[in-house]
Design brief:
Blueprint: E1 3-7, H1 12-20, E2 25-29, H2 39-46, E3 54-59, H3 64-74, E4 78-81, H4 87-92, E5 97-102, H5 106-110, E6 119-123, H6 140-143, E7 152-154, H7 163-170, E8 174-177, E9 182-183, E10 186-187, H8 189-202
Parallel strand pairs: 1-2, 1-8, 2-3, 3-4, 4-5, 5-6, 6-7, 7-8
Antiparallel strand pairs: 9-10
Helix pairs in contact: 1-8, 7-8
Length: 208
């Protein structure tokens, strides 16, 4: 079953809508972003996330000490790294890592091989901040690449009207959405529900 991550959640209503629609991962952004939350806000929001839904913290070029302090306080299950973190940096963390890679060409995918992480998030090139550009990248690049057993999360420009196609074309372990379930920069409860419904429909390969 394809997994779904909703990222950049900032209020309990959006979290509840995602949980009720069978979300797998909830993402809190601790890096510079209009969706950024403080550690204290995330601790409060985390109480609305049931144990079976995994909590992910998003960081960009942050120190190991800060990442682990926030992860412990919030009770994160994964840390997602969107910066220039090296394979060695990822291995030093005491939490499972989701490493994000901006995909412009096949060469960008070659970098994945040197990382040993829980998941590999393939995203479109960012805009003002890392990630979250709301644009798709060329999915055919992934089809041509042999990832062996690596678990891929597909991100970048996904929304309700293209997520089924994305899942069928790329066959990822999961999909990640943020701006694609927003209206005027705010999480839209109906779009969250519709996206999760479409993503689960698009899962025809049974791949994890």
């Amino acid at each position: 079953m394809v997994q779904v991550k909703i990222c950049g959640l900032r209020n309990k209503e959006a979290i509840q809508a995602a949980v009720d629609a069978d979300v797998d991962f909830i993402g809190f952004v601790f890096a510079k972003s209009k969706r950024r939350v403080t550690m204290e806000e995330a601790v409060d929001l985390a109480q609305y996330v049931p144990d079976h839904v995994k909590k992910v913290g998003v960081f960009v070029n942050e120190s190991i000490e800060t990442i682990e302090e926030i992860a412990e306080e919030v009770g994160l299950d994964y840390v997602q790294l969107h910066g220039d973190e090296t394979p060695a940096f990822c291995e030093q963390l005491a939490f499972p890592v989701i490493k994000a890679f901006e995909v412009k060409s096949a060469e960008d995918l070659d970098r994945v091989a040197s990382y040993d992480c829980a998941y590999y998030l393939l995203d479109s090139p960012g805009g003002k901040y890392r990630g979250g550009s709301g644009e798709t990248f060329d999915w055919s690049l992934v089809q041509k690449h042999n990832f062996l057993t690596k678990k891929i999360l597909l991100a970048g420009g996904l929304k309700v009207d293209n997520v089924e196609e994305a899942i069928k074309e790329v066959a990822p372990a999961g999909v990640d959405v943020s701006s694609g379930v927003e209206t005027d920069g705010v999480k839209d409860l109906e779009k969250i529900r519709a996206f999760l419904d479409a993503a689960k429909k698009g899962d025809t390969n049974g791949k994890i």
